[in-house]
Design a protein that fits this description.
The chain is an alpha+beta fold. Helices cover 62% and strands 14% of the residues. Strand 1 and strand 2 form a beta hairpin. Helix 1 packs antiparallel against helix 2. The protein is flat and about 95 Å long.
Length: 175
């Protein structure tokens, strides 16, 4: 049908078609960018809140140090200084490093799927919740964890009665 009309009208119809396609693609991209922007707002707000909270905690601890020094109680000032140093040393990179280290160690055992992993840098503890294929895999997991710097991996007797896949949790500590 496009060849039944004259050349000028055909070019106009084709140009209108491409303009319309460009408009649809543009609106689609605008919609995607708006959706991404709206979804990013809660994350940005959460991070800003965490930064402000951390800064406020540091300011409070520094005020406590100054108050303790004014009261000339060196013991209390030392305790508060130590708390402040611990708080400053618990960085995201430490947590991420521990998280990746534990994740790689656990995933090196075939038949194990990590369902939960909690790293607490201040208390130097790691809690791992996994789904294991069977009790032999659980034994292998405990053996692998005991060979690392993480301590406290145990195989409870209740695991020995399991026949199929089951949830297996471990609470570990490290230095």
């Amino acid at each position: 049908m496009l060849y039944l009309i004259n050349e000028e009208q055909r070019k106009k119809i084709i140009a209108d078609y491409y303009i319309r396609v460009g408009q649809v693609v543009s609106w689609f991209l605008v919609g995607i960018f708006l959706t991404i922007g709206v979804l990013a707002v809660p994350t940005i707000l959460l991070l800003q809140t965490e930064v402000r909270t951390s800064e406020q905690k540091i300011l409070n601890l520094e005020r406590e140090i100054e108050t303790a020094k004014d009261m000339s109680t060196e013991k209390e000032a030392t305790v508060i200084t130590n708390k402040l140093e611990i708080f400053k040393t618990a960085t995201v990179s430490d947590i991420q490093k521990r998280y990746l280290e534990v994740e790689n160690t656990v995933e090196s055992v075939p038949g194990v799927l990590i369902t939960g992993l909690n790293v607490n840098v201040l208390n130097k503890t790691v809690q791992i919740v996994t789904e294991v294929k069977d009790k032999e895999v659980a034994k292998d997991l405990v053996d692998v964890l005991n060979k690392t710097t993480y301590k406290g991996a145990v195989l409870p007797y209740s695991v020995l009665s399991e026949k199929g896949s089951f949830i297996f949790a471990q609470n570990l500590t490290y230095e």
